Fold each of these.
Amino acid sequence: MPPDPMVKMLSHSTGTVKPFIELAKAQFTALQLSARSRELVILTVADYTGSTFVAAQHNPMSQAAGVDERTRQLIRSRQLDDAELSPHDGALLRFTADIVQQPHVADDVFDTARVFLSERELVEVLQVIGYYWTFGRISTVLDVEVTKIYGDEPILDTPDNGTSGRLPAVPSRPCGARDHRSVTRPGAPGSCADSPTDEPFEGFHGPTNRHVPETGGRSPQS
């Protein structure tokens, strides 16, 4: 990854910066979801989270993935029911927007998304949304500026020589050093030490009426 302001900001969390960026790489290399669909999701998240950073980086990426300018305009204007959108795109965009805005998705929105997305793709969409919601909030809350548009440059280290995923060293910074917004609250004791948790993971809990079966393939029609 390039040593830009976002990477520097992420590096404050020394224990998670590498896996966070590894997860970014997975969004580009390990999904069944198509690159075009991924970019539609990311642009929608960028708009609904107000992240100009994510939007700026993914406008050229979405163009390279086949998203035309008219579709990007409809996303920016939140015209997700527009007849110019294909049924697939409209379903995906409305599904994404609903997830970003509220904890539960309307039944009709969910059912329509299931028509076009496999069970694996539905879960991948949720993960992409979660990742770029976090990325977007880092950019907005900590005022991370756009210094360069990377477009479709190979900014993630993905060579097939055994070094895939290896990150360049991030320049060290003194504790309490500031750029953009400080991540330390005024008056709070500053510390650069890691603070991992040993609490066990207890698993997921929630309603089962939209359970995704273990078997593959597309969900049956209602």
Amino acid sequence: MLPAWSNEYSVHNETIDAEHRKLFELAHRVEVAANKAANRSELKDILAEFFNYMRVHFAHEEEYMKSIGYPELSNHKEIHKEFTRNVASLVKNSHSINDLKESLLIIARDWLIGHIMQEDKRIEEWNAVQIANNTKAVLDKQTNPSCSLDQKSLSCKLEDKPAVYVYQCHCKIHKVSESTHNKINKIDANVVCKECKYPLQFLRQE
């Protein structure tokens, strides 16, 4: 039996998590269809929905990895490409309804869920370290004087430079002023990117 979605599988990105939840739901539909009397047409319809959503998700996930500077982006993209090729090959070589059912279960259980639980979790683990490091750097700046008595001849850059707040969506990094940051925090609803329409997520202060 396939596992149900839980926060254990979260990568702490609202959009990616929502898509992962959808893929879990589709995987469970595959499991139900594979364990009942379903005709080939019904199975192919489920597979088509599953496969198309999976490809869209992979594209979104790759944009997200690019936006956060994930160092394993190239390797992860290759995993996505291999996954897609393997799915197509497996379905192509399914010559009976039972073969197709078994192929669907392999795709849903062994490949997709396994991919989310292992490879995608690595993205979250890496990003968590970066956020922790950035937070520490901000705290260090706040606790250390920007200008010491021995630096009178130097400009106090930290004092003169206005704070910049960094957000991310699916398509790019957004840098906003403190006033804009404060406005975003006062709004109850999510603020979305004008280009990709995905919610902005706060990363750090620079």
